Amino acid sequence: DFDETKSEFIASATVQLSPGVSLETRQASAKLDDDDTVVAVIDTGIDYNHPSLKGSFLFDGDELVGHNFLNPSFLPYDYSLDGGKLTDHGTHVAGILRQRFSKARIIPLRGYEAPASELIAKLETLKSRGYFVRVINGSFGGYGPTVPVKKIFEKVALRFPETLFVFAAGNDGYNNDIELHYPAALTETYSNIISV
Fold first, then answer.
1. Fewest CB atoms within 10 Å of the CB: 63, 112, 142, 159?
2. Residues 133-181: pLDDT tens digits?
């Protein structure tokens, strides 16, 4: 269930998608439309100059709060490694967040296969600077227990039990109870991870 009045994701719902196909959500709750809510978007980066995203990001003085794990010398801008053209995926995700949760502040984190130690260190640094990341969105993943993101987010979710992790269930139409898509399939082990 989604409580429109509180902008809160609430526990245990079953959503009927089509005959014979339902989506069950696990108990998870996070207020997402408070001024102090921080959402980290781990993706391709974000076009933080996009006019629709104005006012969505955290700044420490003139410095954008975020990180580029692929190339720490550069800001986490939404571009491909192939010719530097805009990829738009992370920007699109940020746009969805902005449209629905206009008060939440977004921290762009570019590169989803960063080593767990680097991601944990960055989240710890953010926390020490007063930016508690309440929600982490990850629209990525892979199949099978050997994909790198499985081990990465096992460690990160364990280290940050107070953070809600929202991971993509995949775009392939597979039954995730049979074809496990990680890190979304970690919902069975970690109560702070949900799969969408």
1. 63
2. 999 999 999 998 899 999 999 999 999 999 999 999 988 888 888 899 9
- Which helix or strand (DSSP H or E) is residue 181 part of? strand 181-182
User: Residue 144 has which token pair?
Assistant: 């099978």
Question: Which residue, 154, 141, 153, 123, is CA-closest to 180?
Answer: 141
Among 173, 133, 125, residue whose Cα is nearest residue 157 = 133
pLDDT confidence of 49, banded at 50, 70, 90?
confident
Contact between 68 and 76 under an 8 Å Cβ cutoff? The reply is yes
Mean pLDDT of the residues in the chain: 81
pTM confidence score: 0.81
The helix or strand, by DSSP H or E, that contains position 67, with its residue range, turns out to be strand 67-68
Q: What is the C-alpha separation between 147 and 126, in angstroms, rounded?
A: 27
| φ and ψ at residue 56, rounded to 5 degrees | -90, -15
Per the CB < 8 A criterion, the answer to whether 145 and 108 are in contact is: no
